[in-house]
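can u do me a favor
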């Protein structure tokens, strides 16, 4: 059932369900999450079952207050505190050394735990009413695209989730940036906070998992499997318009491009979907998964995705598009 997140009564009901060990889908500023009480192992198991997600892929804990951190992590370093002050509440997930209270189901047996405080008002209110850390992966089937509307959650998970709290279209439309601060700060997943913003706060360039060997990156963050975020339709990711042109010759193909300028240059007879007519990366990010879902429903033979500019949010958009290839 979909219930409006603007009704307090619905949020109170959702909080009761979470406390009892049921799962509830809810909006955040990034994408919709599938939440469960982090202190209830049976509830956590439901998440993996519903998503058909392997337990080797760890979950993010969602809090409403920094005071909740104390029992969950071993320490909050000055770097962590600086980043929290700048980006929380917001779409930055930080990796801490975990305390004994954090279940191995959440961390996939790692000795670290991923945590964030979301910025979305409905999410924050729900977390407050629940009073517990809530583990929440994106509310989609494993390796599928994250849902950015309540309807998309319903299409992904159907009646396997009793309650979906509706908060409209997610503001950023891309998942949170995952940053490890265990050693030197390192981005494990590009996301809704651009790397440049984090570098500005820290005052120096940061490492990204892309610069590591694939295997060690996988061990650092098992969720960084290369195939992910994918529509059902086969998708090819092209770095240049020239590459894209080769694929556009066949019938029933659809291209997805950044802006009107790219569309014009491509000059194709095939349908071309534009992420942001005037070339705004924020708008493109917000539209990415809804547009891909719309295209998927039309069942083309192939989606040809063309790289957006590689800066700011563009790195996260290109990361998702390259991982959607199959
Ligand atoms: O925006 C988001 O982050 C959304 C909303 C619902 O908050 N959640 C989300 O969760 O995208 P999920 O489970 O789809 O992705 C979590 C990512 C995975 O790539 C996982 O590998 C990584 O976080 N992760 C979780 N715990 C980790 C840990 N201890 N060390 C390294 N990476 C971790
Ligand atoms: Mg996910």
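np, heres the sequence
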């Amino acid at each position: 059932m979909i219930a409006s997140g603007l009704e307090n009564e619905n949020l109170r009901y959702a909080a009761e369900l979470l406390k009892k060990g049921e799962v509830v889908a809810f909006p955040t500023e990034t994408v919709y999450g599938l939440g469960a009480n982090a202190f209830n192992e049976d509830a956590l198991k439901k998440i993996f079952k519903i998503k058909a997600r392997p337990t080797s892929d760890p979950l993010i804990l969602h809090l409403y207050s920094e005071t909740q951190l104390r029992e969950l992590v071993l320490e909050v370093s000055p770097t962590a505190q600086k980043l929290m002050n700048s980006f929380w509440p917001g779409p930055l997930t930080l990796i801490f050394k975990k305390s004994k209270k954090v279940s191995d189901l959440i961390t996939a047996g790692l000795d670290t735990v991923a945590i964030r405080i979301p910025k979305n008002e409905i999410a924050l209110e729900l977390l407050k009413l629940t009073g517990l850390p809530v583990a929440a992966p994106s509310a989609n089937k494993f390796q599928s695209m994250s849902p950015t509307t309540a309807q998309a959650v319903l299409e992904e998970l159907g009646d396997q989730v009793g309650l979906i709290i509706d908060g409209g279209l997610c503001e950023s439309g891309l998942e949170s940036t995952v940053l490890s601060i265990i050693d030197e700060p390192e981005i494990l997943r590009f996301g809704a906070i651009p790397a440049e913003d984090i570098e500005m706060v820290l005052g120096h360039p940061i490492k990204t998992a892309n610069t590591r060997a694939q295997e060690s990156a996988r061990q650092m963050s098992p969720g960084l499997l290369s195939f992910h975020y994918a529509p059902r339709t086969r998708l090819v990711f092209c770095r240049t318009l020239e590459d894209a042109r080769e694929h556009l010759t066949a019938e029933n193909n659809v291209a997805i491009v950044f802006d009107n300028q790219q569309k014009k240059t491509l000059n194709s007879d095939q349908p071309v979907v534009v992420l942001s007519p005037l070339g705004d990366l924020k708008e493109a990010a917000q539209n990415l998964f809804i547009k891909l879902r719309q295209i998927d429903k039309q069942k083309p033979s192939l989606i040809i995705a063309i790289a957006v500019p590689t800066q700011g949010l563009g790195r996260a958009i290109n990361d998702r598009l390259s991982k959607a290839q199959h």
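The pocket of magnesium ion (ligand 2) is lined by residues 137-138, 146 (CB under 6 Å). hope that helps!!
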